[in-house]
Amino acid sequence: MPPSISSARAHAMDTVPPPATSAVARPDRAWLVYLLLGIAFGTVLTKAGVVSWFRMQEMFRFQSFHMYGIIGSALAVAMASLALIRRSQLHAANGAPIVVPPKKFGHGIRFVVGGVLFGIGWAMTGACPGPLVAQIGAGATVMVVAFLSALAGTWVYGLLQPRLPH
Amino acid sequence: MPEPSTRLWPWYVAGPLIGLMVPLLLLAGNRLFGVSSCLRHACAATLPGSIPHFRYDWRATGLWNLIFLAGIFLGGIVGGRLLGGPTAPLAPATQADLAALGIHDLTGIVPQEILSWSALGTATGAFLLIGGGFLVGFGSAYAGGCTSGHAISGLADRQLASLVAVMSFFAGGLLATHWLLPAILR
Fold first, then answer.
1. Spatial distance between the Cα atoms of B119 and B125, rounded to a whole number of angstroms
2. Of the candidates A25, A98, B51, B126, which lies 20 to 30 Å from A144 by C-alpha distance?
3. Do A70 and B130 touch (CB under 8 A)?
4. pTM value?
């Protein structure tokens, strides 16, 4: 997530609260909450087979509904929750108004080229970043190699960023 | 002690639980659900060099994310070892397709024949693990998000960028599945 919270929204969203002001926001110390949510997320990923290279093959071969059901229902719940949060103008636990920073579209090249490259890696390893870490915990320790390589990939992107089209 | 359940959690249980991460993280601290940023934060924390992309206050923006990532790792232990990994059989069509590629061992979460410590010594295994991992890190950084940040958070926020990114993720996955894997495994 690029730190561009103050940038203008790419499209109209009627109920976006104003950016957080330091007057109401307290420091964020929900560390235990983040850890517990991560554990819950990792457990679900593992028990539902999202960490499985084989299930990704089922998905990319259109031979099972399982992964589509997971992504689709996750999206539906996330979308409904977001609408509810906006409608009721809820604030975060530290008192700050809830803001979802927009992703600047620019030329869109980064989303196409970066996206395709990511997708290739996704099918090769059977994992996106979250499941990659869960795979290691679940016992596929060799995925440490893929994880370190992913770190290297991100680092190389940072190095090349000024010269890449976005 | 009773045998841990190895039943695969159904999509209608897993999907909504994953979707709930979005509001819960927003409510906990105004944090946007997304995992690939962790890779950037980890680079910023360990080897930023003089690269502008990694020169920022990673503790302020990313410490929560790294803690969340540590949780995912622990969740892998909970789900995969303590609760017993899921072993539901693959779709028969997938089994047949994988057999045609020479993948017969369908146990575990990754194919032992191509993704294992012993396979790392082979050209195929090294290519898949090192090359695939690299593309996951490079691609998600370039695209500004991965499956969680774009396919769940971004689409839930109806962002055009995320729609384009998710379609591209899928195009890449199809390309690798139907062209790259057969090319290197046959």
1. 5
2. B51
3. no
4. 0.90
